[in-house]
Amino acid sequence: xxxxxxxxxxxxxxxxxxxxxxxxxxxxxxxxxxxxxxxxxxxxxxxxxxxxxxxxxxxxxxxxxxxxxxxxxxxxxxxxxxxxxxxxxxxxxxxxxxxxxxxxxxxxxxxxxxxxxxxxxxxxxxxxxxxxxxxxxxxxxxxxxxxxxxxxxxxxxxxxxxxxxxxxxxxxxxxxxxxxxxxxxxxxxxxxxxxxxxxxxxxxxxxxxxxxxxxxxxxxxxxxxxxxxxxxxxxxxxxxxxxxxxxxxxxxxxxxxxxxxxxxxxxxxxxxxxxxxxxxxxxxxxxxxxxxxxxxxxxxxxxxxxxxxxxxxxxxxxxxxxxxxxxxxxxxxxxxxxxxxxxxxxxxxxxxxxxxxxxxxxxxxxxxxxxxxxxxxxxxxxxxxxxxxxxxxxxxxxxxxxxxxxxxxxxxxxxxxxxxxxxxxxxxxxxxxxxxxxxxxxxxxxxxxxxxxxxxxxxxxxxxxxxxxxxxxxxxxxxxxxxxxxxxxxxxxxxxxxxxxxxxxxxxxxxxxx
Length: 514
Ligand SMILES: Nc1ncnc2c1ncn2[C@@H]1O[C@H](COP(=O)(O)OP(=O)(O)OP(=O)(O)O)[C@@H](O)[C@H]1O
Ligand SMILES: [Mg+2]
Hints:
The chain folds into three domains: 50-131 and 138-176, no CATH class; 180-391, P-loop containing nucleotide triphosphate hydrolases (Rossmann fold, 3-Layer(aba) Sandwich); 397-462. It has helices at 3-28, 31-48, 68-81, 154-176, 216-230, 233-239, 257-268, 283-291, 304-307, 329-339, 346-359, 378-381, 397-408, 416-425, 430-437, 446-513, and strands at residues 51-57, 88-91, 101-104, 109-114, 117-126, 142-150, 180-184, 198-202, 244-250, 271-274, 297-301, 364-370, 388-391. Strands 8-7-10-11-12-9-13 form a seven-stranded mixed sheet. A hairpin with a 2-residue loop joins strand 4 and strand 5. The protein contains 16 helices and 13 strands. By secondary structure, the protein is of the alpha/beta class. Helix 3 crosses helix 4 (154-176), helix 13 (397-408) packs parallel to helix 15 (430-437) and helix 14 packs parallel to helix 16. The structure holds adenosine-5'-triphosphate and magnesium ion.
């Protein structure tokens, strides 16, 4: 439907005539007469027309900040109707996954429907024709979106429809944003020109729950847990708890703890804050760092057992520089400052986890990883603090099948039963299975790769057997040595008793002789 026809349909013939005359006169009338005309046509139009218009300006009161509502509506309209618009505008948007974002061009119109009610959106930009000077290029350009709808649907459109548009627009923006991986800077670098507590790079880890090799039921359970958490805003508010969830990931090296974190971040679309505790000097610093994290983020403390010892005191840094004397004094001071004994304590960490986020809005996930769960202080991992414990262990058959599908594209093979048997007999980490399964050259087919894995598993089984034999032998030898030592000790004791006995006799004899 063309512009004039559509206008006719919406506003009736009188209205369209007014608008037509108005549009024509814009070309010929001087500005002051045009302003009058504008005022009265608007009055007349609103009197005659059964349609309501709502205008959303790009910039609110303070011109420096773009209106959130405008951005959300624009995102919603681009996602839902850009394929229906003939003229689009491409803009480079910060933190977006795509090089540019498309939105409807000026003076284009989009029709949307909500619960069977039609609404119309138009995008307009105006530049004042008066001669003015501005320090900011194009700062006088005003852009706005106009929503038109029949006054009969006023409540529906101003209430549920606009909420739906803005919520969906925000959700789309979050989905399309580029994830970031943050790492904390030492506090000596927090102040000064352009310095920050966290440095970031773009997070582009390819791990997803599809690529993660583990039992499907366990994986599903984790995904369900995350979904429940993501949708739990009202629930957490209702029960009066901060909207956060703690996970403890533990298992031997190479079992996928870091890959799981990356998969979680990609699934949730959350930024990752990799908190290096050894660079944090005291509890107050820790608190500042945590407050400085954004909502929708995962805060990760890897190898927690290496950062805090069981008493909650920080482990001392082992590395000491030998040629300290040769360094310039400023570098030396900075280094000394960084190497200063940290006072971050277990209780400080726990207080931050428990306390801080009750005051921070938005959702956050905290993840601890460790290779040795038994070494951790129970206070750190008690329920409520760490809501879910996930054990990542040696590769099982189900996990292998995920690798085979992802790496080789095979879901069944005659060699699978042999692999299942070997995986049941020997411990191999998923990292090693993946390494052995990966084609080493383009000539290697699935059969060769599976055979390579079988060879590696057999070798591992052989080595494990040898190791067990050696250990048994060593234990037996140790036991033998212990028994030998005990025997020797006993013999010595007996000899001593004998010797004492003899001398006793002498004494006795002597005693008698006296
Ligand atoms: N469960 C898994 N699923 C998919 N890939 C895995 C899995 N476990 C390990 N890998 C592969 O092995 C490599 C090492 O895994 P990852 O870094 O996640 O192990 P980790 O448990 O974090 O080890 P560490 O304790 O040494 O930090 C990854 O690059 C990944 O490709
Ligand atoms: Mg890791």
